[in-house]
Specification:
The complex is a heterodimer. Chain A is of the alpha+beta class. Helices cover about 35% and strands about 15% of the residues of chain A. Chain A is globular and about 40 Å long. By secondary structure, chain B is α+β, with helices and mostly antiparallel strands. In chain B, the strands form seven sheets. In chain B, strands 9-10-7-17-14-15-16 form a seven-stranded mixed beta sheet, sandwiched between helices. The radius of gyration of chain B is 28 Å and the shape is globular. The chains are: A alpha+beta, B alpha+beta. The interface between A and B is large, with 53 and 62 residues.
Chain lengths: ~160, ~725
């Protein structure tokens, strides 16, 4: 089957019920999206965007994604000039505020935050918490998450102005 | 005949008595002495160049013999190097050390809150040695004496004529060849330029983490790599009796091998799911193992009802005549009991390893805190020489908290790889982790104290029972069994309030059945011992009609720990506006941490922490709104990284205190739904203040800030509801 990952068409040869997470990690070499969820709870570290919506790769069968745009953390930065990447505002904010500790939940946080800002460019703290609450963190990055999303919103607004 | 036997028996008896009376207490005392394990006393490498390499491009590659687990140690140690070597931050390229480079006898692992504190001086010395070697080489080429050479910002130049210069890179290869031993270090007391230590330099590992490019253990892919799945027993300690479906499994799609060795069966397949499905088809029969329930664990881990003496338990600390005073006071003594739950370290990246067993060597890729120990484990399992086992520590680790020390995947992957002669990955799942991870020992605490008429504590006794967190560690476990003293279980139990004249801390070793995985865990007994002791201090303060913060200060003296603990208590109180009324609907509780002797004590002593918790009701739930943490950790190398460490430690300890317990209805948690951990929506604001952070040397930050969290919250809850909570996890609904 043909999938559309980070703007590229890729051919997959796998059972249609295989979760996207393992296709990404084991077949496509896109290991940025992380495992760790169990059948009873998705911890959010596997979050990708499917047509802009945050989606759990751990429980999305790859067969459901034919013909739909999928974006992973590897595709978050935008390349305006060939060979030159421009980090996404959430990536810049996460670096500015030094949010990650071990980094395992970071891709899940970034994908969720980027989707939130697409839909709510100026979210309230409550909206941020509600959106980001689905990504668990064991190291304790939580105090920096809301400020980082607010900073990302600022950066995104600055970029739009330019 | 009879006479000789009598003499022999008497001799053995006397020897046994002498052993029990003298040798055992000494072993107990030594087991509490951190120097015994050498955790905080690494040796310098034979050559300074083991940790550092400078290329012709003048970039400095640092091979750091500590593991970056997310604690920021690579960045902090790079800052120390950069100051000593006079580097430009942009020149630095930090690499994770492994068995091939960096880790050696003297630095075997990373943990116990010692990574920065224990390497601070060695890194400075190595930096100085390299600097002086470069200076000597430059002097030789310039034809001047070393005194006339300046070394700074990647350049060596003649002091009187800066145009005569070389880059470090120009000089490095020859400087390395000419190096013949430690140089005169008197010149080095002051670093070239203290530029980076003390500044919040950005973490060197973060850029890769925000792009998804960081390769963690689970991300490692080797050419020809296969996936392995290993059979797990239905009960702890059960042994494999029969594999009925091996042929059937071998015939399943993608299966490369079914590997059966003594006590072990696993499947290797082309795809992860194929390995798991074949494993499920193996038709396994097991026998033996233990069944244990929460009630039995509680019955076992209980301090004896009769007040303990040194004969019944191990003496951790004694002063004055605590037991006599308390026994004499009878019913007038204050008494309390506390219990704490078994909790899991549960890093979000489960244990994993990729093993490549070739004819003449073994290469392991794994996230681990202890690369040399992993090499030994695999060498032992495969019956090969440890020198043939290379452990490449992956540079990114998805959390560990003590878990990636005794974890099995390395040996499992090695066994499978040897059978199929290809690289094999074994990655544990969250379900396996919930069932089989080492977990913190449950504890039981009995405390007694007397208060005199003026509200001062006359005697204070803390008896605690634990199952022995070190018990499952080879060699260390034998010491625990022999001495009935477990240095990890008693962490933080010593009483810092030296104004109390009669003090006693006694540890009762109450082991659980061996197959139950108790063990290695961030902070070990520190947070639970402090929960019990500081909740009890709060009870005594209330009984004395005293302000809980003032009550604690009153019982501290001017000894080094007392002075420093007083300072952090005052700092926490000040930062939390303790003397002002709390915001409407909120109340505060306070708790003081304790020294954790293994936690990277610097020359100032071990890290000390005090926390004020602010709680309030939200509907029928208690909510923790804010934690104010004051920390004395000696010199703060990176203020932002240090703050992140305190935030992280506080939130993990809060998660343990509010949510975590492996026991659920019907047995142990086997799914994440049964074992909730703290989420963003429940996280309080965290305010961090460092005390005395500009001078001295660093002490540990990974574990100490976990110490006072549970007690501070429990004490705040008492202030809110009037109900004293005596067990962890705390009840947060009224």
């Amino acid at each position: 089957m043909k999938l559309n990952i980070n703007g590229l068409a890729v051919d997959i040869n796998a059972p249609a019920d295989e979760p996207l997470l393992w296709i990404l990690r084991d077949d496509l070499g896109l290991t940025g999206t992380k495992p760790g969820c169990d059948p009873t709870l998705c911890i959010g570290v596997c979050t990708v965007l499917v047509e802009g919506d945050p989606t759990s790769a751990c429980r999305t069968p790859v067969g459901d994604l034919v013909g739909r745009d999928v974006v992973t953390v590897e595709g978050l930065a935008t390349g305006e000039v060939i060979g030159e990447e421009r980090p996404h505002p959430v990536q810049r904010a996460w670096l500015e505020l030094q949010v990650p500790q071990c980094g395992w939940c970071t891709p899940g946080q970034l994908m969720t935050a980027s989707a939130l800002l697409e839909q709510h460019p100026d979210p309230s703290d409550d909206e941020i918490i509600e959106a980001m609450d689905g990504v668990l963190c064991r190291c304790g990055s939580y105090p920096r998450v809301v400020p980082a999303v607010r900073r990302a919103a600022e950066i995104a607004a600055e970029e739009r102005r330019r | 005949m009879t006479g000789r036997r009598l003499v022999l028996a008497a001799g053995v008896g006397v020897a046994a008595l002498a052993f029990r009376a003298f040798v055992v207490p000494e072993l107990q005392r030594r087991s509490i002495d951190p120097g015994v394990f050498g955790v905080s006393a690494p040796r310098l490498p034979d050559s300074p160049f083991a940790w550092c390499e400078i290329g012709h491009d003048n970039r400095i590659r640092l091979f750091i013999p500590k593991v970056e687990l997310g604690q920021g140690v690579h960045t902090a140690l790079a800052q120390v190097f950069a100051d000593e070597l006079g580097l430009d931050w942009a020149q630095i390229d930090v690499r994770q050390g492994g068995t091939e480079r960096g880790f050696a006898l003297g630095v075997i692992g990373s943990g116990g809150s010692t990574s920065v504190s224990s390497l601070y001086l060695p890194v400075k010395e190595v930096g100085v040695a390299i600097r002086e070697a470069l200076r000597a080489e430059a002097a030789s080429r310039l034809g001047v004496s070393p005194d006339e050479v300046s070394v700074d910002e990647g350049m060596c130049f003649a002091t009187t004529d800066a145009d005569r210069r070389f880059t470090y890179g120009d000089l490095f290869a020859q400087a390395q060849r000419s190096w013949d031993g430690p140089t005169d270090r008197t010149r080095s007391a002051v670093p070239t330029r203290p530029t980076f230590v003390g500044r919040p330099m950005p973490r060197v590992d973060l850029p890769a983490k925000v792009t998804g490019r960081a390769v963690f253990g689970s991300d490692v892919r080797r050419p020809g790599m296969l996936f392995g799945a290993v059979a797990r027993p239905p009960r702890y300690g059960a042994k494999l009796r029969q594999v009925a479906g091996a042929e059937r499994a071998r015939a399943m799609p993608g299966v490369v091998a079914v590997v059966r060795e003594r006590g072990f069966v696993g499947v290797v397949a082309n795809r992860r799911r194929q390995a798991a499905e074949a494993l499920a088809a193996l038709g396994l029969a097991w026998h033996g193992g233990i069944e244990i329930d929460a009630a039995e664990v509680e019955r076992t881990v209980t301090a004896p009802a009769a007040e303990g003496t040194i004969r019944r338990g191990g003496l951790v600390e004694t002063a004055g005549r605590a037991k006599r005073t308390l026994d004499g006071a009878g019913g007038r003594a204050h008494r309390a009991e506390y219990r704490t739950s078994m909790v899991l370290p549960l890093p979000l990246e489960q244990p994993v390893a990729v093993a490549d067993v070739r004819r003449d060597r073994v290469v392991l890729h794994t996230p681990t805190q202890v690369p040399l120990i992993k090499a030994l484990q695999v060498a032992f399992a495969l019956r090969c020489h440890p020198k043939r086992v290379e452990v490449a520590v992956v540079p990114y680790v998805g959390g560990s908290f003590g878990r990636k020390v005794a974890d099995p995947p390395v040996v499992e992957a090695a066994r499978l790889s040897r059978a199929v002669r290809r690289p094999v990955q074994v990655a544990w799942t969250m379900e396996e982790e919930l069932r089989f991870s080492r977990r913190r020992s449950p504890t039981h605490h009995v405390l007694r104290a007397t208060l005199d008429g003026s509200g001062r504590i006359g005697a204070f006794e803390h008896r605690l029972a634990g199952a022995g967190s070190m018990r499952t560690v080879p060699l260390a476990g034998a010491v625990v069994d022999l001495t009935r003293m477990d240095v990890a279980d008693v962490g933080g139990a010593t009483i810092p309030y030296l104004a109390i004249p009669n003090r006693s801390v006694v540890y009762h070793y109450t082991p659980l059945p061996g197959p139950l995985p108790i063990g290695g865990f961030r902070s070990y007994g520190l947070p639970v011992n402090v929960f019990a002791a500081e909740s009890f201090m709060d009870e005594l303060a209330r009984a004395a009609g005293a302000d809980p913060l003032a009550f604690r200060l009153r019982h501290l003296e001017a000894d080094p720990v007392g002075r420093r603990l007083g300072a952090v208590l005052r700092a926490a109180g000040e930062a939390a506006d303790w003397s002002e009324p709390a915001p409407a609907g909120r109340v505060r509780g306070v708790a003081a941490g304790r020294p954790l002797s293994l936690a990277g004590a610097g020359p100032n002593g071990a890290t000390l922490v005090a926390t004020v918790a602010e709680v309030g009701m939200e509907g029928d739930r208690i909510r923790v709104h804010r934690l104010t943490c004051a920390v004395d950790a000696g010199l703060i190398v990176n203020p932002d990284g240090a703050r992140a460490q305190v935030e992280g430690a506080a939130l993990m300890a809060l998660s343990w205190a509010l949510l975590e317990d492996v026991w659920v209805e019907g047995g142990m948690a086997s799914s994440l739904r049964d074992y909730p951990i703290l989420r963003l929506a429940d996280a309080p604001a965290i305010d961090v203040r460092f005390v005395n952070g500009q001078t001295g040397e660093p002490s540990g930050l990974g574990e100490p800030p976990t110490a006072p969290i549970a007690a501070a919250v429990a004490n705040a809850i008492f202030a809110l509801t009037g109900e004293r909570q005596c067990s962890l996890p705390l009840r947060m609904t009224s």
